[in-house]
Amino acid sequence: MSGKNEATTDIPNVRLIGVDFDREGKSHGYIGIQHSTTRSCYYWLPVPITCIKNRSGPTVLLISGIHGDEYEGQLALSKLAADLQPVDVTGRVLIVPMANFPAAKAGTRTSPIDGGDLNRLFPGEANGSVTQQIAAYIEHALMAIADFVIDLHSGGSSIMHVAAAIVVAEGDALRFQRQMALAQAFGAPYTIVYASRSQPHFGKIALAASARQGAIAIGAELGGAGSVTSHSLALTEQGLVRVLHKVGVLAKISDASSPMKTRVLSSDRPDTMIWAMEAGLFEPAVIVGNEVRRGDLAGRIHVVDSPGRSSSEYRFDEDGVVTVARFMTQVERGDCLYRIAFGAEHAPGFV
Ligand SMILES: [Zn+2]
User: Fold this and answer.
1) Which of 64, 26, 24 is nearest to 47 (CA)?
2) Ligand 1 centre from 306 Cα, in Å?
3) d(CA 181, CA 29)
4) Domain 14-266 is in which class?
5) Cis peptide leading into residue 123 (ω within 30°)
6) Ligand 1 centroid vs 99 CA: distance in angstroms?
């Protein structure tokens, strides 16, 4: 291990069931969050967790289901928890496939219990709402003992996201190098580098929480539209294996293909999105991965219940690559239609 702290245990409503982080071998269990309901007054929410430990080495925390309607990570981590054997591991792998368990069960981005978006609630509150308690446990008990964190996402139900590793640069050159090495090993077609200052809610996301706890962390966005494809799932599974190999936890990776050369993009400002300014039906003009130029048509919104009214046009303000595109056709004013990113020369750390 790397001299990190042991897990915090003073989160009063949370207990670890069936898993001991210090036990050699593989154990499956639950992070139990007390949640008293009419149906069950002493109920605890069972957030699944697997711990695989063998010999001495780094601790890697693999998380998905922070948003419940993002499935590549949930599938890949569920398969990994079943298949990965202690004998193949040097160190410790902690797998949490349904981090916001109520949201993952409901297939929703946010918790049906308290409305909590887990990726906006770190560092959480030990005595707060259910989602705040999950955040507190993940940050103070899991990230606190992790050397590396991989946080798997996708576009969820409403958008499609280009397949990408996500690096949030915080101005520390050595950390940035180590994050980029993980992103390159993950081997997605794109790596998107965000400057922490470009994320208004940065301190509240899992990648920020990991950094606070001293772990080297990357995220991944792997598709979206509330579904998976064989391609996006294979990319996720192979990327995880390559990262585990890169950090020294897995010696053998014969099943994984070589990483694709990743194209580094930068999204260093919060104003790279196009939002719908009225309700209607969205007609997209481009898809994720398209290169666009300033002035290109992005799409149209049709107000179908006003017969004869012309559609409104949306155009790109800058040259870039489309990284996010709205998937749902119905739109309201305020919905994000697109997000773009730029070439690597704009990325923090690249000069
Ligand atoms: Zn997400």
Assistant:
1) 64
2) 35
3) 32
4) alpha beta
5) yes
6) 11
Q: How far is the CA of 156 from the centre of ligand 1 (A)?
A: 6
Q: Tens of pLDDT along the chain (351 residues)?
A: 455 655 665 788 899 999 999 999 999 999 999 999 999 999 999 999 999 999 999 999 999 999 999 999 999 999 999 999 999 999 999 999 999 999 999 999 999 999 999 999 999 999 999 999 999 999 999 999 999 999 999 999 999 999 999 999 987 899 999 999 999 999 999 999 988 766 667 789 999 999 999 999 999 999 999 999 999 999 999 999 999 999 999 997 765 567 778 999 998 776 789 999 999 999 999 999 999 999 999 999 999 999 999 999 999 999 999 999 999 999 999 999 999 999 875 555 543
CATH number corresponding to 273-346 = 2.40.50.100
How many Å lie between the centroid of ligand 1 and the Cα of residue 117?
Answer: 9
The rounded distance, in Å, linking the Cα atoms of 297 and 4 is 51
The alpha carbon of 71 and the centre of ligand 1 are apart by a number of angstroms equal to: 10
CA of 122 to the centre of ligand 1 (A): 14
CA atoms within 13 A on the CB side of 344: 9
Residues 143 and 35: their CA atoms lie apart, in Å, by 23
CB 311, CB 334: distance < 8 Å:
no
Sequence spans of domains, the chain: 14-266, 273-346
Give residue 307 CA to ligand 1 midpoint distance, Å. Answer: 37
Length of the chain: 351
- The pTM assigned to this predicted structure is 0.94
CA 338 to ligand 1 center in whole angstroms: 16
Alpha carbon of 292 to ligand 1 centroid (Å): 25
Determine the distance separating the centroid of ligand 1 and the alpha carbon of 87, expressed in angstroms: 32
Beta bridge partners of 301: 282, 312
Q: Are 335 and 277 in contact (CB under 8 A)?
A: no
